[in-house]
Predict the structure.
Amino acid sequence: MRKRQWRVYAKKADFNGLGEKLGISPYTVRIMRNRGLTGEEEMREYISGELTGLHSPHLMKDLDKAAAILMEKIREGRKIRIIGDYDIDGVCSITVLYKGITALGGVVDWRIPHRIHDGYGLNINMVKDAVDEGDIDTILTCDNGISASEPCRFALEQGLTVIVTDHHSIPPVGNPPANAVVNPHQEGDKYPWPDICGAVVAWKLIQAMYELAGFDKDKYLELIEFAAMATVGDVMPLQGENRLIVRHGLKALHKTHYQGIIQLALASSTSVSELKSYHLGFVIGPALNAGGRLQTAEKSARLLLEDDEMEAMTRAIDLHSINESRKDMTAQALEEAVLEVETTSLKNDRVLVVYLPKCHESLAGIVAGKLREKYYKPCIVLTDGEGGIVKGSARSIEGYHMSDSLSAVSELLLKYGGHPMAAGMSLSRDNVEKFRKALNDNCTLTEEQLTEKCW
């Protein structure tokens, strides 16, 4: 079972002096100091929480270039195809880009890969489909693409324009070939808060495009609800710019006119006026993710893009029902995973690699997250795919960089990618035990690091 070590912050500061300057209690100053805020200016900004604290999109590398290319395509009437992802961040990213480009008069459609049949992100077949249709000029990715070097190269060879927007870690081989790559984690990027989700990257791009079009400077705020939902749903740190987006996004959600959000809240036995970050993370988010997990994420994207009240209601009820089924399936898979750990030598491993052949592969990440909560160890859940391929999802703990750890055993993997705290991978079924052993042989986590720190 997981171990916990309780600690009490004791960071020093002039609590009384800062409290007097800021007009707040010294105890409030102490809390802010313990949360990492260092001085009067930073604390004042934290208290005010104004949108003026948002960073300029123009600081992001290649963003202005991408905005200029897209505006030219819109002026020329060229058709743009958005390629998204099947989670809440992906569908919110599609919604932001589709609504933004449509408002600018662009010709645009969107596609989402099927989690099981296509796998994650842009692929060769999606590029071929775009080429075969004959009228697609530009591929615009969101919340994916940074690892899609081969599909991007193929698209360029076919004469398509390729723009990648993403927020995932840059792969060891570097950026994919593209006309523009927008990702705050890439080398040379000067964006001051890189820990943003894909929907925020998309939102920043639309902001720059609106500026080029001469739109009102605050028009981009009409899409802040989707940036906020994705920020919470994709588990971004609620600090810095993310905190501002969620704070003001929640205010916008309380009076939103988007029928998809209104009806999904109602289907989940709440209302938009009551939405808090909790609902985004544990009610709205899981429901939007459920479509892509058990059926198709197109259900979620179509709901968010739906303007008709009755149609949105029908779609929301359907999605809520799918999510209820997902909960039951997750509980069963988790029970099997815990039994596997508790009754085998796995319980002695520092990195838990649990193979659940019959688990629906879309639930692997959820089960891995719950195992991490139970044991406070890096956890990977593997499930059977097609053709002897095993697919997995990983969730990590502080001190264990998951994507780097996967890179160290990449010879055993067919495909992998992700963040320090979460990742996905595929491998041959024959390599499952080798994979588990290699990760544990390479693991340097100490007993101290495997003890959760509670502050």
